[in-house]
TrEMBL record:
Family affiliation: Belongs to the nitrite and sulfite reductase 4Fe-4S domain family.
Name of this chain's protein: Assimilatory nitrite reductase (NAD(P)H) large subunit
Pathway in which this enzyme or protein is active: Nitrogen metabolism; nitrate reduction (assimilation)
Cofactor: FAD; [4Fe-4S] cluster; siroheme; [2Fe-2S] cluster
PANTHER family according to UniProt: NITRITE REDUCTASE (NADH) LARGE SUBUNIT
Positions with a binding annotation for siroheme: C678
Species whose genome carries this gene: Paenibacillus prosopidis
Binding site for [4Fe-4S] cluster: C634, C640, C674, C678
Residue intervals of the Nitrite/Sulfite reductase ferredoxin-like domain: 555-617
Length: 805
């Protein structure tokens, strides 16, 4: 007869242990799992990606409900265990369920540490630990604008990035002077701070919070130095504490965590524990990799197999904030008995430090370029002697530094190469040899390695090269999302070659591993299909983001903003009067002149949108879309004494010619009447600057988070040439850009020379212009379409307002 195994805690460590038991001894146990959260087992690590908008809640499920059914596991989700009767061997929940056991695993994880401050119980004060917290942040961001994160560690910074992506203003309060002080040294911390400030985060360092202000809901914080900061939302991310109250109450020995020996046994027979709730040799871990190592040991023990036991882990971390690469491992701070090799390039934004003690690498910090991370981490773990080769570890070998191949060769098959997903070197080698994997993406699809933080990609690439040799490895390429390993170019080529016209077809024919697609690939496919088949592809409105679906910009409080088109920023008294009348009639709370020289009516109720557009009777300004936004112009030669050309007429012509067209990402233009450049044309996707006897066309600029000044594409003489080059350039971007890739990134990826070469010959330009004109001829003003078509109007009015985007 099978023994009864109960797992308390349906989280990452506990369920990983069950997965391994099922592999090692599938018939040994009848398994019951209890979990407080009402969800199947999910990847908590990926909550940061969900908050940042890079993944959907559905994308992060590790084991679906089907998995429990298929493995005959009884799952009690949403039920919290309140007691283990270790004498009668019965587990009981708060809701009254009782289940007997032969063996029980406690994997209750951690609780976020909440500062016990006056006011900490106010509405709007939360942690960042689970799906519920994520949902609270999504909801809050719709109604409120100011978030304060307490704690500038990994969790706090990932929360802050996510909240910025939700359009909140974000301040990070940190008690230390150095960000991520538990993972970074001073130099790295300062570089990190500069980078994040550029992304829009504000920092209050060396501050201790004394009080949370507000009546029912938080309105701000007061610090010990008497200063205050306003806040509509406070997220505490100041560390975690093992969740052990239930174990303690049940008579299990605890200290800072549940005490276990090297075999994950507690002081009570048949009661085991793994995960963040555990204290092993004085350490409680807060990262997945060591927890999976614990889970592997316990799985072997419960499966009745030999195990050497768990002896503790060295840990490495990677910050998951896009645009910032930070890696830290082992003992990264200097000490009396350590020496370090450092490389710092403040202009390139790169810092690398390797700490050495007694001839061995014991720690590393990397900022800006973390490609050495996996190699250094392997060196720390292997403990090999690097005496005499210290400098070469970072500065290039000249022959004697340990090569990547040597390092891979020295790793045992059991060694974990992907900490987040608990994948060993042996599993990767098997995937290469037996399943024919030849790229990092293949390995990801086969084993899940590299699917979470991505920090292990270089190491997996090294294993591939070690097994297959450099020639056997497919160049590492990114799939467009987690549903496929195919790159943008392969998807577009497939659409063309196989004449695929709907997203469903693409997903079926091209072997998507998630038949519904995800929030990343659905809008991308809709764009690629429309770009390749402008005449045959029917726009899949449900795949578009909420702003594009509703043809208006959703605001924090769930209302919308309406921006009519004002060509070249030039308007008339009649249009101004019409806009004013509409603003009065619909009681628009705010009327704002935008940076793109138009008028934004903010705070509009969704149900008022169709009648407002009817009354306005002006084209949509597409202030929401991935399309041409505005063409900003200066007054030019018509009025300005410096002007050499008519920039207003040129801008109006360009806006009329190219409006409404879908582009991979938003596209902004400007036209200046002379090189004084009052229209700021050199930070636009395409900027035109008048010069004596002609025009300069500048491309690839950006004025957003990462400012990029344009490159000069070409000088031309006539207005017709400006329009021809602009059309050809836009179409080339449409045909080769990745969905969501602004021209600044695209230009750097494909290279200015490639773009120039593609547009250089007149016949190539004209072919591109012909294709863009076909696409343009099929566009319609979305509001005209909606207000004039009853069916569409009803559809619009019934569109739900989604919770995320
Ligand atoms: C936003 C975020 C990002 C992170 N990013 C990373 C990262 O990039 N890399 C990394 O290595 N780590 C990361 N971590 C940490 C990582 O998620 C944790 O180390 C890991 O989830 C811990 O696993 P666990 O099984 O011990 O606990 P959990 O995953 O928390 O699982 C414990 C489960 O037990 C349940 N439970 C508790 N008490 C009871 C009870 N009495 N009865 C029933 N159920 C109970 C809880 O509700 C919970 O679902 C991140 C954490 C967060 C919050
Ligand atoms: N990318 C990743 O690996 C990742 C991401 C998120 C979370 N996590 C894990 O989740 C857990 C929680 O993360 P965390 O960032 O909360 O923990 P942490 O301990 O790494 O960082 C907390 C930070 O808060 C600061 N702090 C402490 N008290 C404070 C106070 N009163 N006011 C302001 N600042 C204060 C500390 O100086 C510290 O740097 C950790 O185990 C972490 O490793 C990992
Ligand atoms: S860019 Fe030149 S033409 Fe245009 S407003 Fe400025 S000075 Fe006048
Ligand atoms: S180590 Fe994070 S995905 Fe592999």
């Amino acid at each position: 007869m099978k023994k009864k195994l109960v797992l308390i805690g349906n989280g990452m460590a506990g369920v990983n242990c069950i997965e391994q038991i099922l592999k090692l001894a599938p018939n040994r146990y009848d398994i019951t799992i209890f979990g407080s959260e009402p969800h199947p087992n999910y990847n908590r690590i990926m909550l940061s990606s969900v908050l940042a908008g890079d993944a959907d809640i559905n994308d992060i499920v590790i084991n679906s409900w089907d998995w429990y059914r298929e493995n005959n596991i009884i799952i009690h989700a949403g039920h919290t265990v309140s007691n283990i009767d270790t004498k009668r061997k019965i587990v009981s929940t708060e809701s009254g369920i009782q289940v007997p056991y032969d063996d029980v695993i406690i994997a209750t994880g951690s609780l976020p540490f909440m500062l016990p401050l006056p006011g900490a119980d106010k509405k709007g004060v939360i942690a960042f630990r689970d799906i519920k917290d994520c949902e609270t942040m999504f909801e809050t961001a719709k109604k409120y604008k100011k978030a304060v994160v307490i704690g500038g560690g990994l969790l706090g910074l990932e929360a802050a990035r996510g909240l910025l992506n939700l359009n909140m203003e974000v301040s990070v309060v940190h008690s230390n002077k150095i960000l991520m002080n538990r993972q970074m040294d001073e130099t790295g911390g300062i570089m990190l701070q500069k980078e994040l400030q550029q992304q829009g985060m504000k920092f209050l360092l060396g501050k201790n919070t004394e009080k949370i202000l507000g009546k029912e809901r938080v309105t701000g914080l007061r610090f010990s130095d008497g200063s205050e900061e306003s806040a509509d939302l406070v997220v505490m991310a100041i560390g975690i504490k093992p969740n052990m109250a239930m174990a303690k109450k049940s008579g299990i020995e605890v200290n800072r965590g549940i005490l276990v020996n090297d075999f994950m046994e507690t002081n009570i027979p048949n009661v085991y524990s793994v995960g963040e709730c555990v204290e092993h040799r004085g350490i409680s871990y807060g990262l997945v990799a060591p927890l999976y190592e614990q889970a592997a040991v316990l799985a072997k023990k419960l499966a009745g197999l030999e195990t050497e036991g768990y002896h503790g882990s060295v840990v490495s971390t990677k910050l998951k904030v896009s645009g910032v690469d930070v890696f830290s491992a082992g003992q990264f701070l200097d000490n009396v008995d350590t020496r370090a090799v450092r490389v710092q390039d403040e202009f390139g934004g790169v810092y690398k430090k390797v700490v050495i003690r007694g001839g061995k690498v014991v720690g590393a910090v990397l900022f800006g370029d973390i490609s050495d991370g996996a190699r250094l981490f392997a060196m720390i773990r292997s403990g090999e002697d690097v005496t005499g080769k210290e400098k070469e570890i970072l500065l290039g070998s000249g022959g004697s530094a340990p090569s990547n191949a040597d390092l891979i060769a020295s790793m045992s098959d059991d060694e974990i190469v992907c900490g987040c997903n608990g994948v060993s070197k042996g599993a990767v080698v098997t995937a290469i040899n037996e399943k024919g994997c030849t790229s990092v993406n293949d390995i990801k699809a086969c084993t899940k390695a590299s699917a979470s933080c991505g920090g292990c990609k270089p190491l997996i690439a090294d294993v591939l090269t070690y097994v297959l040799g450099a020639d056997g490895v497919k160049t590492v390429k990114e799939g467009i999302c987690g549903c496929t390993t195919l790159s943008r170019d392969e998807v577009v080529e497939g659409i063309r070659e196989m004449k695929l016209t709907t997203s469903k077809e693409v997903m079926n024919v091209m072997g998507w591993n998630n038949p519904e697609g995800c929030s990343k690939c659905r809008p991308a496919l809709n764009y690629y299909l429309g770009m390749v088949w402008p005449e045959d592809h029917e726009d899949e409105r449900e795949s578009r983001f909420v702003n594009e679906r509703n043809h208006a910009n959703i605001q924090k409080d769930g209302t919308y903003s309406v921006v009519p088109r004002i060509y070249g920023g030039v308007t008339t008294p009649q249009d101004l009067k019409k806009i004013a009348d509409v603003a009065v009639k619909y009681e628009v709370p705010l009327v704002k002149i935008t940076g793109g020289q138009r008028i934004d009516l903010l705070g509009v109720k969704k149900e008022d949108l169709p009648s407002m557009w009817t009354d306005l009777d002006m084209p949509s300004g597409y202030a929401y879309g991935k399309t041409l936004r505005t063409v900003k112009t200066c007054v030019g030669s018509t009025f300005c004494r410096f002007g050499t050309q008519d920039s207003m007429a040129m801008g109006i012509e360009m806006e009329k010619r190219f409006e409404r067209l879908s582009t991979p990402a938003k596209f902004k233009m400007a036209v200046s009447g002379c090189p004084r450049n009052c229209a700021e044309a050199t930070i636009k996707d395409l900027g035109v600057v008048a010069i004596d006897g002609g025009w300069e066309i500048h491309v690839g600029g950006n004025g957003g988070t990462k400012v990029r000044v344009t490159d000069l594409l070409v000088k031309v003489k006539t207005e017709e040439e400006v329009l021809e080059w602009t059309g050809a350039y836009m179409q080339y971007y449409r045909e080769t850009g990745k969905y969501n890739e602004r021209t600044a990134e695209w230009l750097e990826r494909v290279g200015l020379d490639t773009i120039k070469a593609a547009l250089e010959k007149k016949e190539d330009r004209l072919a591109l212009v012909e294709r863009i004109e076909l696409a343009l001829s099929l566009t319609q003003d979305p509001w005209k379409e909606i207000v004039e078509t009853d069916k569409l109007r009803t559809t619009f009015e019934n569109l739900p307002i989604p919770t995320m985007n």
